Amino acid sequence: MASDTHADMKINPPRAAQLVQNLKKVTARIEEANSNGRKIRLVAVSKLKPANDILALHNSPLSPAHFGENYAQELQEKASILPRTIKWHFIGALQTNKCRPLSEHVPNLWCVESVDTIKKADQLEKGRYILCEREHEYAEIPMKVFVQINTSGEAEKSGVEPGDEATKLCRHIKENCPHLELQGIMTIGAIARSKAATKETENEDFIRLKEVREKIADNLGIDPRGLELSMGMSGDFESAVRCGSDEVRVGTGIFGERPPKKDAKVKEDAEEGDD
């Protein structure tokens, strides 16, 4: 259960103002790249940043709702002290044994974006089922998931291979996980391809993800528009938007450089107005 810890959480006004300005700049860049006026979801990736930063943005006049985390324990800790009006996205590599606790204990976990095995989907389903049995107000609200696709073929990257395995996983979620909703497919492209992309040339990984969506939708007999594309981060989100992404995940562009993991704090105790 979420506590009221956020009620007395200290907010640094200069820091809050800077975060709002950063968010405005990112939003403006998305709008400029979005030539056809599509609705683009911006996920503010807050990993290794304190809950104070998230609350400052969430309570600002811009009131963003979607925040992303890469570490399961960090997300659970932050969710326990922040408002349930936040819509959490888990976007990092997720171990199978962390799936069930995550979906069981975070009611406002809006989406897990890194599902790449049937076992992970099944564990997320079990956790969400338990949560819905415990908190009935969530019983009719399935948790959304993206299937992560390894479009670059890099061995170190997570994600299911494009092709039959991707279709099989998507079909399993739709047919066997009633407490999950297949929102779409996600990729984290190769850094070199991101840097090579320009306004005139599209990122190869983004092109590949669009092709994978078409194939999955055809195999499942659904409209491709029913599967969102989540692609694009701080270094390449404009290219992703131009290529048709429905969602971008931006961290450093909003929150600034991250501290080393060992130095990160879930909550800061800075006095109001301190620098």
Features:
alpha/beta, 8-stranded parallel beta sheet, disordered C terminus, 10 helices, 41% helix, globular, 275 residues
Question: What this model shows, in words?
Answer:
The chain has an 8-stranded parallel sheet with strand order 7-6-5-4-3-2-1-8. Mean pLDDT is 92; it is low at 271-275. It is built from 10 helices and 8 strands. α3 links the parallel β2 and β3. α3 packs parallel to α4, α4 runs parallel beside α5 (118-134) and α6 (164-176) packs across α8 (204-220). The chain has 275 residues and is of the alpha/beta class.
Task: Specify the overall morphology.
Answer: globular
The average pLDDT value, as a whole number, equals 92
Helix content: 40-55%
Number of helices: 10
Count of individual beta strands? 8
Main β-sheet description: 8 strands, parallel
Tell me the distance between the termini.
32 Å
Identify the strand order in the major beta sheet.
7-6-5-4-3-2-1-8
Uncertain spans: 271-275
Query: What is the radius of gyration computed over CA atoms, rounded to a whole number of angstroms?
Result: 18 Å
The topology string of helices and strands comes to HEHEHEHEHEHEHHEHEH
β-strand percent reads 5-15%
Class per helix and strand makeup: alpha/beta
How would you summarize this macromolecular structure in one to three sentences?
With 275 residues, the chain is of the alpha/beta class.
Secondary structure: elements and pairs:
Blueprint: H1 13-33, E1 41-45, H2 51-58, E2 66-69, H3 72-81, E3 87-90, H4 96-105, E4 109-115, H5 118-134, E5 143-148, H6 164-176, E6 180-186, H7 191-196, H8 204-220, E7 228-230, H9 237-242, E8 247-250, H10 252-255
Helix pairs in contact: 3-4, 4-5, 6-8
